[in-house]
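Sample intake sheet
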Amino acid sequence: MIERTLSPNKPIYLLGESFGGALALCVAARNPTVDLILILANPATSYERSPLNFLPSLLEDLPQEYYGIFPYAMSPLVCRLLFKLTRNC
């Protein structure tokens, strides 16, 4: 880490959004001796609790010839679900 060598008494800021937030958490966990300040926006850490986590199980049961149309077939359902989840925000 070049920043740590150049400025050993200053913290390193890590900014991560979505999957980048999960990566920033991994960097922090693997470097406990480095003075890090994490700024996380919507880190992708709670997929198991997501209302969309049923999609991979649908793909497992889907015949392979339908893989290409799956995103188009699911988009109305996913859009409707996202609208319901976010309309009170």
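Comment: Residues 48-86 form one domain. The chain has a mean pLDDT of 76.
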